[in-house]
Specification:
Elements (H helix, E strand, L loop, with lengths): L6 H5 L4 H14 L5 E2 L11 H11 L2 H4 L8 H15 L9 E4 L2 H7 L10 E6 L4 H8 L3 E6 L15 H6 E7 L11 H14 L2 E5 L20 H4 E6 H4 L8 E5 L1 H12 L7 H13 L2 H23 L5 E2 L5 E5 L6 H12 L1 E2 L1 E2 L10 E5 L20
Parallel strand pairs: 1-11, 3-4, 3-5, 5-6, 6-7
Antiparallel strand pairs: 2-8, 7-8, 9-10, 10-13, 12-13
Helix pairs in contact: 3-13, 5-13, 6-7
This protein binds pyridoxal-5'-phosphate.
């Protein structure tokens, strides 16, 4: 029997990281020792307090039952306190906050609540690939807006054609940005909120990297006047507390948007494992020291890898925030070819910029997610010969 995939599935691009994973696995099976700087999955252990909570909570009978779709009240309450303390944003824990099975889950399910087949979803290019998957699975039309180096990797919203603006339902924005590492200044966020209010577009603001910064502190879109009318913001425990595998995040903002997402989720998942939610409460309540330590570690790795890349001749290296370096290759180089060379000749796994969209071509992304001792093994002194 042959079963045909749906048109939506057929339209999905191959998931970039899955392809890289396969190649990596193949080389590892051949016995190669790789330095993996490809995926944003921190090598650092989550704080021990969280593990302790998880362990004791998992044993309790009430935590082994189905969780509430809306999440534990105590977790929503703790998120409310954290958002107020970190950004000065006021949120109603019952209507404006929703725990998620990781922020990706919410980011991808969200369009299902609001998209009709003729609607556009505007997605930056380059971008975290899940937005494209989200729009495609919801059956939307996609318009990609370029994030150019000359505009500090901010989209020029005035360049979006009227036919798209008039039929767009959602725009995804993500700062601190993966992969370009840039932070959005307040003036840009104000412009984005005005743009969305004018055209009746939902601003989906992905703030997964809000705590991974070095100088300037990233903002929440909800700090911007008028944002709560049009925005939903996504946060993640994955990066802030190195809890990627736990699967915990939250959405917050406009209550209609939150209730639409909740409706979708109620029909798909049955909440986050209660013990993981308890772990999240511990993270927010007792582990505020942790992001600070994490930033210190990432800052040192960033310094070391930047030095290596600079001495190999790379001089446009972006690392304003997040745990990535976004590195410009010489003109006309192929990011795929470069990453293939790195993998095969240097045993380094990096992510080709083209995997994040066509405007990512000419760049390569390095994730600072391995211990600094591995950087001693990197030798790029002869790299210029390939260009
Ligand atoms: C920009 C961005 N948003 C969201 C996520 C998803 O994070 P989570 O683990 O919370 O699903 C990632 C993960 O890499 C990311 O890079």
């Amino acid at each position: 029997m042959k079963f045909d995939f749906s048109d939506k599935i057929k339209k999905l691009p191959p998931y970039l990281f899955a392809e890289i994973d396969r190649t990596k696995q193949k080389l590892r099976n051949e016995g190669l020792d790789l330095i993996d700087l490809s995926i944003g999955d921190p090598d650092i252990l989550a704080p021990k307090e969280i593990i302790k909570t998880l362990y004791s909570s998992a044993k309790l009978k009430e935590n082994q039952k189905y969780a509430l779709d809306q999440g534990k009240y105590e977790l929503r309450r703790e998120i409310k306190v954290w958002m107020k303390k970190r950004f000065g944003v006021d949120l109603d824990e019952d209507k404006e906050i929703l725990p998620l099975v990781g922020s990706k889950e919410g980011l991808v399910h969200f369009p299902l609540a609001f998209i009709e087949a003729s609607d556009y979803v505007i997605i930056p290019d380059p971008a975290y690939p899940a937005y494209l998957g989200a729009a495609t699975l919801a059956g939307a039309k996609v318009y990609r807006v370029a994030l150019l180096e000359k505009n500090n990797f901010l989209p020029d919203l005035s360049k979006i054609p009227l036919r798209v603006k008039n039929r767009a339902k959602i725009i995804y924005l993500n700062y601190p940005n993966n992969p370009t590492t840039s932070i959005a200044p307040k003036e840009f966020l104000e412009k984005a909120v005005k743009f969305c209010s004018k055209y009746g577009i939902v601003l989906v603001y992905d703030n997964a990297y809000s705590e991974i910064y070095f100088e300037e502190k990233p903002l929440s879109i909800l700090e911007i006047k008028g944002a709560k009318e049009v925005s939903i913001e996504f946060h993640s425990f994955s990066k802030t507390f190195c809890m990627t595998g736990f699967r915990l995040g939250w959405a917050c903002g406009n209550k209609e948007l939150i209730s639409g997402l909740l409706k979708v989720k109620t029909n798909i998942d049955s909440g986050v494992f209660s013990a993981v939610q308890e772990g999240g409460i511990t993270a927010l309540r007792d582990c505020s020291y942790f992001p600070l330590q994490l930033r210190r570690i990432i800052r040192e790795r960033r310094r070391l890898l930047t030095k290596i890349l600079k001495s190999a001749g790379f001089n446009r290296i972006y690392s304003e925030a997040t745990f990535y370096l976004w590195v410009k290759l010489p003109p006309r180089s192929s990011s795929l070819e470069f990453c293939k060379y790195l993998l095969e000749e240097k045993n380094i796994v990096a992510t080709p910029g083209i995997g994040f969209g066509k405007w990512g071509e000419g760049f390569v992304r390095f994730a600072l997610t391995v211990d600094k001792k591995f950087f001693d093994k990197i030798d790029l002194t002869d790299i210029n010969k390939i260009f």
